[in-house]
Amino acid sequence: MKRFIVLLLLAITTTPLMAEAPPSVAMLNLFYNGMKARVTDDTIKAQFKDIDAALRDAFMSGRNGEVRRHLSKGMSLAIGRGWGHKQEYEASLIARTDNAFADPTLPVTIRLSQLFPVKAPVANDAPQTMLTAQFEDAPLRARVVLHEPPQRFNQPGKKLQEIADVPGLSSDLIESPMAYQFDVTDIEDGNYQIRVEVYNENGTIGSSGTPLFVRAGLNKRITALRAAAKEADESVQADILYPLDMMRKISHDIMAAGRFDVDAEIAAAEYIAVTKKPFKNKTGDFERHYYLEDAGEIMPYRVYVPASYKKGKRHPLIIALHGLGGNEDSMFARRYGMTALSEERGYIMAAPMGYREDGGYGAMGGRNTHRGEMSEQDVMNVLARMRDQYNIDEDRIYLMGHSMGAIGTWSLAAQYPDIWAALGPIAGLGDPATTQVFKHIPQIVVHGDADNTVPVGGSRAMVEALKLHEATVTYIEVPGGGHTNIAPMNMSKIFDFFDEHRRES
Fold first, then answer.
1. CB 475 within 8 A of CB 459
2. Options 3.30.465.10, 3.40.50.1820, 3.60.15.10, 3.10.20.740; CATH of 279-500
3. Is the pTM of the predicted complex or chain greater than 0.90?
4. Contact predicate 279/288, CB 8 Å
5. DSSP letter for each residue of 212-255
6. What pLDDT score was predicted for residue 10?
7. Is 238 in contact with 268 (CB distance < 8 Å)?
């Protein structure tokens, strides 16, 4: 079982990491494994063996700081930057603000600390053994600088202005983090990145950035939305309050800003507050929200209702699970073609967030972790809401997903085997020992034999176990297929399979 959990932790997906800190260890794993697979230098490959061994030990002992250290080393080696004291120090730095969404009427505080312990080097090429003797000769300072948003991971955008120069920076930012408060009155409305650059007389040693969204009048709009939610029907209160909760989570580093569009989300919430019940009889593609009580958070989920929907007729439902790094929007992407197929064939479709972008739907990291439990609960809550709000055919509820979503599909099938009419895991893996529990559920499994992200052996093992139990399985292994391109080309076949199967009575 330990080996299975490690495989789940190392399983990755289709969505690129956004340029923010701190990414989860699962997301860092995504990049590390992808980079490692492209390395051809035998000397560097040999170093990966030691890194992988250290990673397994750190993962299983729960030392996330050490996990980050080893992953950072592996990625630095993979891209040819090498790994020395300077690289290690820079990888440890983490900048955070007290509020990523700033109204110019209030100041913002930025802090700089470290994700794992490492002393600052005195000079760019100073070996770690010289620190004690030379540190006092090169005191540390920090520059706080406003940049345009980064265009690529870890690549700062254009420098706009220097905000402050802070002296007396500690060599141990875990024990004594830097904190600096600055005024944003003269900063125009826009999306930015605030970077903190650590330097001494020998030059810049390292830097870290964090998002900053400046909006005039933001506090008034927040106050108005809170008041509107109190007066609104209970069914839409979470929809009105969602952007405020998301802004809180982004500011506290609970969630990455990613694709969150503060202007669009606040405007949508204001529209709901004015129109009272905008989702009544609504068809097409839209987003809903609800309060996940055990997490104390508002969860988003995406819905598609075909134009043919009629309350007096039962309709099939697909629950679609995104991959690692994705969100409730991912399975609605045009490249999947799922909304067009849902419209054409009369399916209702719902895509949960799954609590976090790396929640794992109760599979990754184990069901007994808070993250795993909340991720599983989120999916099942969305299913319950869809059953409550729409006339769903109870014998035609389907579960599918891509990558981590495929892992979640098999995991949730094992936990709730009496719900699903059929399963559609794409490019996933699972625990073959669980197949006995859901062998009665028809399944269509898709995987590419050239998948370097989640190797095809994961699906092969599951299919082999299902066939031993005489399960109904259609297996599509795409010759030369990678991790992402196999999903769109086989989506209509998955819908064909769903069309043909109903839940056993």
1. yes
2. 3.40.50.1820
3. no
4. yes
5. EEE-TTHHHHHHHHHHHHHHS-HHHHHHHHHHHHHHHHHHTTSS
6. 40
7. no
Identify the three-state secondary structure at position 202. coil
Please answer whether residues 474 and 463 qualify as being in contact, where contact means their C-beta atoms are separated by less than 8 angstroms. Answer: no
Low-confidence stretches of the chain (pLDDT < 70) are 1-22, 122-137, 152-154, 364-368, 505
DSSP state of 15: -
Lookup result for tokens 């913002």:
108
User: Domain extents for the chain?
Assistant: 2-83, 92-214, 219-275, 279-500
User: What is the third-level CATH fold of 92-214?
Assistant: Immunoglobulin-like (2.60.40)
Task: Give yes or no for a contact between 375 and 326, defined as CB atoms under 8 angstroms apart.
Answer: no
Helices (H), 294-397: 338-345, 370-389
**Nearest one of 363, 381, 383, 376 to 428, comparing CA atoms:** 363
Instruction: State the Cα–Cα distance between residues 194 and 188, nearest whole angstrom.
Output: 14
- The string of DSSP letters for 165-180 reads EEEEE-S-TTTS-EEE
